[in-house]
User: Fold this.
Amino acid sequence: MKYFILGGAGRLLFPCLIVLSLIVLYRGHNLPGGGFIGGLMAATAYILVGIGSSMRVAKEKLRVDPVFLLALGLAVAIISGLPGMLTGGVFLTGEWLPTFSLPLLGKIHLGTPLVFDVGVYLVVIGFTLHTTFCLAELAQPETEEPVD
Assistant:
């Protein structure tokens, strides 16, 4: 472990940052926030683990390739625009399900803007972590002797 205190903070803050990023993601289609900010918060959770322990540990915690997340998010964002076209509107026209309530959560609003935000969320996580992991690999000192 590289940094004892930062590693411990990363383990403690990781679940909190992920949950907070999901809250920001959900409230983003009605209030400030959304997929971009939520995605940055989620990526920050993994980066904090990577700085505190190692980027290898952060990659293992992610469990999927960041480029896959990026591609999946782009596909989700594009697919979110299709329901508007299917109902006679233009691409990315917002379509909403009826509002319903859940105990402890209150009114729930689900629609294509939220699906679009989920796509942005995944794209931002994938791009940010792919960039961070690549930069971390470049920053590693070479362990092999150069061949003359």
Q: What stands out?
A: DSSP finds six helices and two strands in the chain.
